[in-house]
From TrEMBL:
Keywords: ATP-binding, Cell membrane, Membrane, Nucleotide-binding, Repeat, Translocase, Transport. InterPro entries: AAA+_ATPase, ABC_carbohydrate_import_ATPase, ABC_transporter-like_ATP-bd, ABC_transporter-like_CS, P-loop_NTPase. SUPFAM superfamilies: P-loop containing nucleoside triphosphate hydrolases. It is a peripheral membrane protein. It is found in: Cell membrane. The keyword Nucleotide-binding applies. GO terms for cellular component: plasma membrane. It comes from Actinomadura barringtoniae. Transmembrane segments: none annotated. One of its GO terms (molecular function) is ATP hydrolysis activity. Residues 8-244, 248-505 form the ABC transporter domain. It comes from the Bacteria. This is Sugar ABC transporter ATP-binding protein.
Amino acid sequence: MSDSGPLLEVRDVVKRFPGVVALDGVSLDVRAGEVHALVGENGAGKSTLIKVITGVYRPDEGSLAFAGRPVAFASAVDAQQTGIQAIHQEIGLVPSMSVARNLLLGREPRTRLGLIDQSEMNRAAGAALESYGVDIDVRRPLRSLSVGAQQMVALARAVSVDARLVVMDEPTSSLEPREVATLFGVIDRLRGDGIAVVYVSHRLDELYRICDRVTVLRDGRMVHRGPLAELERLKLVSLMLGREMSQVREEGLTKFSGGHDADTAPVVEARGLSSRHLLDEVSVSIRPGEVVGLGGLLGAGRTETAKAIAGALQLDGGRVTVAGAPIRRGSPGAAVRAGVAMLPEDRKSEGIIPGLSVRENIALAALPRLSRGGVVAESRIDRIVDVFMKRLRIKATGPGQRVGELSGGNQQKVLLARWLATEPKVLLLDEPTRGIDVGAKAEVQALVDELAEEGLGVLLISSDLEELVEGSDRVVLLRDGAVVGELHGDDVTENAVMRAIAGQTEEDSDG
């Protein structure tokens, strides 16, 4: 880390929105060659501060300086041209274009006639990705890749330009362990080259692994800044939550209680689910009041299994029954009517409708149930929305606020509210705490417990091993689209999950 003065200085920045002060006198400084953690609960102001730094928002008060000179970015392009690049949690690339075109968009190599040189573009893109440990066909459309692979493309694009500061917003949220190791290698290389990194993550292990200093935000204010290694983990969490360390220590860092009652007949049974190249005779059952975890690496078939149960994946074989009654394959509507609700991994493209209000987003799936003769009483919608906004503690200026203006954790709660309003029998949760802060994560985990205790069946997909192990009564393990094992009760441990995923027996690991 450089001992010179700050590369980026943010001083006493204030940013207001109607009815909300998102940033209230926030200051931040980042040095060249430093990896600086920016942490806080959803709604603490992290996303707003990032948008100020990257030129999306202009501060109402306060100032910015970059490389010792005052700056006032007129746009995100202005910030990029100054040397600030961002890798956002939601991947901002063009799904229909090829990987190579996305990587070199705006910088495509040209022939003498001024046309795009496809072969040179593919060669350059392949070489760039290979240098980051990514081996994919750059001619493929970006949308055909997993979310994790798309995020690695976004990373490669951001660091391939002449950046002096890179903002990484939850960059590992969809990466498998091998890709995370690759990312950390890239960050170490950036540090060595004197490039600054602002790193936003809710995974404490990551923060302590790669970050030099930390700035903690809470309710739009800076509450701490200093070397991360000198800050105890529980103290960091207590600063983010605004709670005493003794309270955090007593409650722990996760909120799952475990041990749900699951002695009754399955509410959902999936048998022999098969889809070419995706699923191979996958079977899973979920009982009322039971949380069943799906374990496996990215590409193992976890999301595909959930989508198959929800009717959102075309199957070559297999069947799904809900409360003993079969539901039509490949029909999301039939699944919803039968009582299946799914919270998707990618809330931006498959979940929320950012231009609609909180009220409209929550009511969307429940409209058929709320209608009488094709007419929906506004008062009934208002009651439903009010109940779930209070129950899930959704932070918004009101039900009329646009969902796209909310923090990631509150967007996730809106999605949960939407599906809970349909009164489902089973809830399929695909990475429900991905990219949300410690406080919102604890609330979602506590809600999962509460729903299970009320008799709802839950399927839990999580890349966070601790969350998967602590939150599940059983774990079904997938590898390459097939079930490779199942763990119950006390056998559900992080080591057992990792061994099964790796195709390793206990004897193998001992040897």
